[in-house]
């Protein structure tokens, strides 16, 4: 076995183990259950409003798709923000660091496991979106928004969470920082329409992976604009996914146990 | 390269975290098949020494080799070592078998072979029947599982930081027997960190005492006790009528530092013994003086005494310097 083969194999071993821990333990299922509950409650309210003509059916689909993307990415972010700092806090990191697995392989394996959180969230969100989108006839668009936008936004946030977790010296600091970053990224999507339509507002939204993804969902599903005219909103999530993954891999080298005599 | 030792070579090791020096100029060697005790009070630098030798932290200065490989060669060193850290955690949802298989695979062992080795180790440690999650294990079972994990790759060098902490006497005995066996039958070099000095006296071939990041003494247990300058006590019971003669003979013939009388037991003396060589001589002097000796009991200096003497001296020096 060459060293490259072994590296690939160790990365797979870590990924498999992380997946087992995430889904056989309580963490993954608890987070997924909370995600499902929130999405179900929101879908019920949106459907009820649409039924009472308080909300356009397309707007209901837009809300569910946007929430599915944002909350799904948030679940992956929470799991990845716990990935390294949690190991350190639970006293399991040192045992891993004295094995032949490199820090980079460790982080890549954890990245795969954390990404599975989004895949599971996607599995939960798809039926909600498809059922609600059948009425206004935007099921395909809603699915594409969910899969493409959600995957890119989640990939970016998962990598960001992992990078934070690698350098944070406590799990609490890691999760708090990751949540703060998520709130900061989501802020431009809440700008009043007057500001959002201006030059600065437009730049803020387009440059930010979360707000750009949510804006794309709104433009395609609610405003009925074509993909051809709106695809540029995918640039920020795609660039962020690549950039944050590179940052997470680079931050792997800074994983430390903390000082001890 | 310092040498081709199959164990541990540590020469002038220095570990600093920023401006804080945790280990300064520490030197020792551990040969293959040897159990070496690394002792010291809290904050002595034991864990930092282990972390430097196990590639977790980079030494700031000095030479550190494990299995003949410099610790800067992380990959090769890690393949040859087994480590049980002090505050080791475990994934509660996993079974012991699954946990060991995972670690086996991290050492490049195939899944089937890792499962076979894991099964063997679990049986040997009395954990063979446990297919339940680690969360349900007792502390002793977890420590034994940790030792299994440290041995899953059949390491040349074992680093064990407080492996018997919190265990009952039977658990301690099992763990110590296992590490002695690893050294004796497999030829592994074992570095044992513990506060329990009676354990060290029982199982370690040699020891080093650290305090404040520096090495105070290193050698066999007897050598360290001698270096600490602590002696044992001889308890002698003579005929009460012979007490003055016994005292006079001891004072005249032996360079002992003190003789004490036990007022509750007439005829009983406690004689400080600076060295083991004077034990037989004490008895000979008493007999030659015509003293009727009724009992003679030796309480030799222990590693505990040496440890306290060495570390207390350091505290005094620090206080004086302040």
Short description:
The complex is a heterodimer of chains A (261) and B (322). Helix content of chain A is 82%, strand content 0%.
Total strands of chain B: 14
Structural class assignment of chain B: alpha/beta
Strand order of the largest sheet of chain B: 6-7-8-3-9-10
Content of β-strand of chain B: 25-35%
What is the domain total for the residues of chain B?
Answer: 2
Estimate the global geometry of chain B from the Cα principal axes: elongated
Outline the biggest β-sheet of chain A.
none
Number of domains of chain A: 1
| End-to-end gap of chain B | 40 Å
Overall CATH class of the largest domain in chain B: Alpha Beta
Q: Biggest chain pair contact, residues each?
A: A-B, 28 and 39 residues
Radius of gyration based on Cα positions of chain A: 19 Å
- Per the CATH scheme, the topology name of the largest domain in chain B is Rossmann fold
Percent strand of chain A = under 5%
CATH architecture of the largest domain in chain B: 3-Layer(aba) Sandwich
List key phrases describing it:
heterodimer; A: 261 residues; mainly alpha; 12 helices; B: 322 residues; alpha/beta; Rossmann fold; Alpha-Beta Plaits; elongated; disordered C terminus
Explain the overall architecture.
The complex is a heterodimer of chains A (261) and B (322). Chain A is mainly α. Chain A has one domain. Chain A has twelve helices and no strands. In chain A, α3 (57-90) runs antiparallel to α10. The relative contact order of chain A is 0.14. The model of chain A has no long low-confidence stretch (mean pLDDT 88). Chain B has two domains: 8-227, P-loop containing nucleotide triphosphate hydrolases (Rossmann fold); 231-299, Alpha-Beta Plaits (2-Layer Sandwich). The two termini of chain B are 40 Å apart. Chain B is of the alpha/beta class and 322 residues long. The chains are: A mainly alpha (261), B alpha/beta (322). Chains A and B meet through α1 and α4 of A and α1, α2 and α3 of B.
């Amino acid at each position: 076995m060459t060293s490259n083969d072994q590296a690939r194999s160790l990365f797979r071993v870590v990924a498999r183990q992380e997946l087992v821990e995430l889904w056989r333990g309580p963490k993954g299922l608890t987070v997924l259950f909370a995600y499902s509950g929130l999405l179900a409650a929101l879908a019920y309210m949106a459907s009820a409003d649409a039924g009472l003509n308080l909300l356009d059916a397309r707007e209901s689909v837009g809300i569910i798709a946007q929430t599915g993307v944002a909350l799904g990415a948030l679940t992956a972010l929470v799991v990845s923000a716990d990935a390294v700092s949690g190991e350190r806090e639970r006293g399991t990191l040192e045992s891993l660091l004295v094995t032949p697995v490199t820090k980079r392989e460790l982080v890549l394996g954890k990245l795969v496991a954390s990404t599975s959180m989004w895949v599971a969230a996607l599995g939960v969100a798809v039926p909600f979106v498809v059922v609600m989108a059948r009425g206004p006839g935007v099921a395909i668009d809603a699915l594409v928004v969910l899969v493409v936008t959600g995957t890119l936004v989640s990939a970016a946030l998962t990598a960001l969470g992992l990078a934070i977790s690698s350098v944070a010296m406590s799990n609490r600091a890691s999760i708090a920082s990751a949540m703060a970053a998520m709130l900061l990224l989501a802020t431009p999507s809440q700008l009043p329409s007057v500001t959002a339509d201006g030059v600065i507002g437009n730049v803020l939204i387009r440059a930010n992976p979360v707000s750009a993804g949510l804006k794309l969902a709104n433009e395609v599903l609610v405003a009925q604009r074509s993909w051809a005219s709106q695809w540029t909103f995918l640039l920020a999530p795609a660039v962020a996914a690549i950039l944050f993954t590179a940052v997470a891999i680079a931050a792997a080298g800074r994983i430390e146990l903390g000082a001890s005599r | 390269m310092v040498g081709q030792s199959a164990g541990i070579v540590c020469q002038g090791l220095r570990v600093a975290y920023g401006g804080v020096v945790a280990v300064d100029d520490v030197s020792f060697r551990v040969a293959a098949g040897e159990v070496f005790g690394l002792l010291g009070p809290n904050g002595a630098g034991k864990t930092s020494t282990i972390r430097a030798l196990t590639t977790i932290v980079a030494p700031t200065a000095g030479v550190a080799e494990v299995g003949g490989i410099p610790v800067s060669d992380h990959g090769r060193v890690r393949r040859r070592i087994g480590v049980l850290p002090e505050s080791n955690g475990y994934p509660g949802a996993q079974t012991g078998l699954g946990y060991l298989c995972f670690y086996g695979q991290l050492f490049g062992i195939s899944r089937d072979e890792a499962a076979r080795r894991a099964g063997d180790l679990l049986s040997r440690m009395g954990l063979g029947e446990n297919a339940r999650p680690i969360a349900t294990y007792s502390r002793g079972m977890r420590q034994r599982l940790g030792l299994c994990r440290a041995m899953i790759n059949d390491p040349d060098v074992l680093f064990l930081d407080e492996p018997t902490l919190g265990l009952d006497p039977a658990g301690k005995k099992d763990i110590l027997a296992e590490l002695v066996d690893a050294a004796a039958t497999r030829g592994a070099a074992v570095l044992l960190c513990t506060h329990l000095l009676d354990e060290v006296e029982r199982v370690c071939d040699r020891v080093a005492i650290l305090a404040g990041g520096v090495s105070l003494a290193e050698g066999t247990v007897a050598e360290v006790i001698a270096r600490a300058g602590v002696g044992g006590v001889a308890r002698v019971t003579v005929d009460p009528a012979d007490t003055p003669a016994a005292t006079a003979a001891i004072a005249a013939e032996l360079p002992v530092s003190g003789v004490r009388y036990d007022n509750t037991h007439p005829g009983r003396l406690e004689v400080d013994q600076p060295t083991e060589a004077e034990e037989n001589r004490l008895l000979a002097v008493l007999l030659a003086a015509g003293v009727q000796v009724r009992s003679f009991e030796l309480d030799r200096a222990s590693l505990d005494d040496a440890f306290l003497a060495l570390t207390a001296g350091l505290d005094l020096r620090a206080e004086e310097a302040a």
